[in-house]
Amino acid sequence: MTLKLGIHWFRQDLRLSHNPSLIALSKKVDKIIPIYIVDPNQRIGSVSKWWLEQSLKNLSDKIEKKNGKINIFKGNPFDIISSLTSDKNIQYFYWNRLYDPYSIKRDKQIKSFLKSEDVDCETFNGYLLNEPWEIKNKGGSFFKVFTPYWRHCNEITRNRKLNKQIQNIKFYNSNLKNSKKIQDLNLTNKNLKWTDKIHKNWSPGENHAQLQLQEFINTKATNYSIGRDRPDQNLTSKLSPYLHFGEISPMEIYSQVSLSKRINSQNKTKFLAEIGWRDFSYNLLYHYPDMIKKPIQSKFNKFPWLKDNKNLKKWQKGYTGIPIVDAGMRQLYGTGWMHNRVRMIVGSFLTKNLLLHWKLGEEWFFDTLVDADIGSNVAGWQWISGCGADASPYFRIFNPILQGQKFDPNGEYVKKYVPELQNVTKKFIHNPWEMPEDNQINSKCKIGKDYPSPIVDLKETRNRALSAFKTIS
Predict the structure, then answer these.
(1) pLDDT tens digit sequence for 250-300
(2) How far is Cα 150 from Cα 138, in angstroms, rounded to an integer?
(3) Is residue 375 within 8 Å of 101, Cβ to Cβ?
(4) How many CB atoms lie within 10 A of CB 151?
(5) Are 285 and 379 in contact (CB under 8 A)?
């Protein structure tokens, strides 16, 4: 008797639990052949490559425990898939959808080809709470503002049940032609010491995603509404990279947080809105596919951005002389992650105080973040620079001194990542250039020598940014 076989194409759904494509395919076939394809044309950052390598190892181990084998390929997905399905035993080919412009175009071509070959091809939503094309306002158009969008989506989502878990997925143990070992993909540069630091801070994989969710619910979520803005306290979920790689389903997070009796309604509301913002980012990206490169508000095409590689490099490495900015940028470079409040502060500083193009920040974040998600990253940068659909107004310019004093009142966050300021008193920790000479001596921190003087004057550059905005408004 011939086995009925189907292929599940893993992409950003590197999990076995609550995986819609795997669940549906399990009902159709005797055994599933799992594959993963590294597409050289798919945008991926340096740190994301490291995470992907670790996550694939984790997934491979889980599949092997179920007597299966994941076949991994590198190359053009269309060519690889057409070669795989030339085997007439492959009757089914399933995957979970992605929503960036490149993936949508590529996947449509592959799906069309498979159908022409009489292969049963189905795709599913395993990445978002709601499909971008399904969410419309009363006028039949898509939402451009987050608050009404999330009010509408939240109503839909809370009435939806999490799909049931399949306990016994039957995988096929096969070595397909041209499949590679994970180490042969050369995803990470072994000479890059940078990723050694990242390794100490993160444990990729589905098991760790589940642990991260439980830790958040049990120990952090009860203070989330206040703690989410405090970089000096470890109160955020840190689920974003696991969500990006699909090691956990957004619907599972939504369901578990919603049902938890430990978390009050205020904290639930704040946290679930963050999951909603991720969906909203993809809603924007789906309807504005050019936003990866161009501002949604077209008037910003004429904005007088500056070109200053010297200041850009100082910003990237955390040597601007502005403590909260430098702490954030060093946290990013050292751990692959940055607190969300600080992301807004460093983004405002780059685009408004330095007057450098938001795309420069977006590219740096995309290369250095473990959660470098194309939708959230682009939407976040367009939001903070004022050029997005539901953006923070351009004239809202974060004052990094006041932000630091409010959200890192004792300077603990700054001192953790900027050790030069370790002995600076609370009074001057966010504005050390104002320290009198004797304070600098006592704190063993000479400004301009041990720690840089600010690369720009905050007040002057604020006025410069407002003047620049008037030229396009």
Answers:
(1) 999 999 999 999 999 999 999 999 999 999 999 999 999 999 999 999 999
(2) 14
(3) no
(4) 12
(5) yes
